[in-house]
Amino acid sequence: MKTLTRARAILALIAAGLLSGCSQTAKSPAPPTGGQALLHKAIGSADSDMRWPDFSDYTKSVKKFYESNGSTLSWVKDGEPTTQARQLIALITDADRKGLSPDDYDGPRWSARLAGLKPATRQPAEANAVKFDVELTVCAMRYISDLHIGKVNPKHLDFAFDEQSKKYDLSEFLKDRVVSATDVAGVVAQVEPPYPGYRRALQALQNYTAMAKKDDGELLPPLTKTLDPGGAYSGVPRLARLLRLLGDLPADADVSADGTIYEPALVDSVKNFQRRHGHDPDGRIGVQTLAGLNVPLSSRMRQIQLTLERWRWMPEAYQKAPITVNIPEFRLRAYDKDFKVAVTMNVIVGNSYGHDTPVFANSMSQVVFRPYWAVPLSIVRSDLIPQMLKDPNYVTKKGFEIVDSRQKVVVAKDAVSQLRAGKLFLRQIPGPMNALGRVLFLFPNSYSVYMHDTPAPEFFAQSRRDFSHGCIRLEKPAELAAWVLRDNPGWTPERIQAAMSASETERVNLTHPIPVLIVYLTSVVLEDGLVHFFDDIYKYDTALQTALAKGYPYPK
């Protein structure tokens, strides 16, 4: 009995010791050794041969990725790259097909890295395997993020799009969807924008890449005066080759290969070119058209690449039958749920001398017929007060009223000083002089920018239409009103015309708010496949190129 008791006591002591040991181990885990130490060092270090070695903006995601996998390698097994690793490398080395640069994802470096593993190296060093794995993780995260939401946060370029809601948890995405994928390319393709315009831009990039390789890059000779149809020009052979390559001159067009006369077939092809580049299609080759023809095809490729970056910024609202205005195109389009264009028209946007139309997204909620125009304080100060000082009757002549904060009409002897101070306000009454015209489309925003009719339709005859203070003037306001009110019972085209001609202001709340996106794309590929290019009127392409040239890490 004593022996049994003693044995039990010894077992109790042993058990206590084992438990104590376990408890101690749980509180103080052993430091990583060997491969794990190399892995932890690689994750926390920017000391590598990567094109962009500073991945501090991805460090947390990389750590989370490896911690969730037990701090083991994901792309290297038994010293050899996995099938998924090879598929990923194939994708990122072909990134230029997506308008991205393979060099940003170490495209030229992967051959040497693969050679450092099996089967090229019989016994690869553990350090090579760890380095390969971490660098592929970083490059994959960059590539997937760039493909999904773009490289640059649009807010850093004053584009008011929210890209935060679109971000993926990259560590989870790689772990759950890529590491074990049978078709890595298929999985990654799902992160791209789903829009037809984006896919058409990708195809256009491939076409222009192929054309740039075929083109000899010869410049058209300068002109001493505008070239009219039938005129003589030594650059005709080059003009014909270029326009045929671009598709503006039909392949079967009968044009002399060494002629010098600007003949009808070439005139028609120049008109096609002018239409695609936002110029008046008059067939005459002046300074503007000649400059456009001499733009290198590599520069057109760059325009398309910048457009693809901006497509990736598009907010989720773009998927919900939106109204869009493309600023440099001076064009509005309203889409149905299948991304088919339901309404399209020319627009006038803010001029490029301090009155840029902002880029943002919102929802249209109301249509106002026979609106008052509450003049923004900035316009009162810069434009109207100087006119009032010149002409004491200016306010009455132009149909303005001076009102207080409750929109009550007032008479004040010191009206100018109170207007300048923002204590009183100006509004323009409905009528033929009203700057908003006969109908206003409201989508509340901090810029006080809206869409509206205009009493000056003659400006739509211009090919470049940046004349407003920031608001968007519509060529066919009644047509847009019919489309946005299509779900509001009783709002027929006849009733809309009557409301636009009435004497009283009428506000109509939309049955369903409609997403509105003001965008900035200097290249657009339409449903017919034709690529249109537009001038960078606000120099936003230039600003984006400057931001992209800085390389990683981009500000988030």
Q: Give the CATH topology of the largest domain.
A: L,D-transpeptidase catalytic domain-like
Order of strands across the widest beta sheet? 4-5-6-14-12-11-7-15
Poorly predicted ranges (pLDDT <50, ≥5 residues)? 1-33
Oligomerization state of this entry?
A: single chain
Binned strand content: 5-15%
CATH superfamily of the largest domain: L,D-transpeptidase catalytic domain-like
- Largest sheet geometry: 8 strands, mixed, barrel
Q: What average pLDDT do the residues reach? A: 90
> Which overall shape is indicated by the principal axes computed on the Cα atoms?
globular
The assigned structural class equals: alpha+beta
Number of helices: 19
Radius of gyration, taken over Cα atoms and rounded to an integer in Å: 32 Å
What would your notes on this structure say?
By secondary structure, the protein is α+β, with helices and mostly antiparallel strands. It folds into three domains: 160 residues, no CATH class; 78 residues, Muramoyl-pentapeptide Carboxypeptidase, domain 1 (Orthogonal Bundle), CATH 1.10.101; 232 residues, L,D-transpeptidase catalytic domain-like (Beta Barrel), CATH 2.40.440. 39% of the residues lie in helices and 14% in strands. It has 19 helices and 17 strands. The protein has an eight-stranded mixed beta barrel. Strand 5 and strand 6 form a beta hairpin. The protein is globular and about 90 Å long.
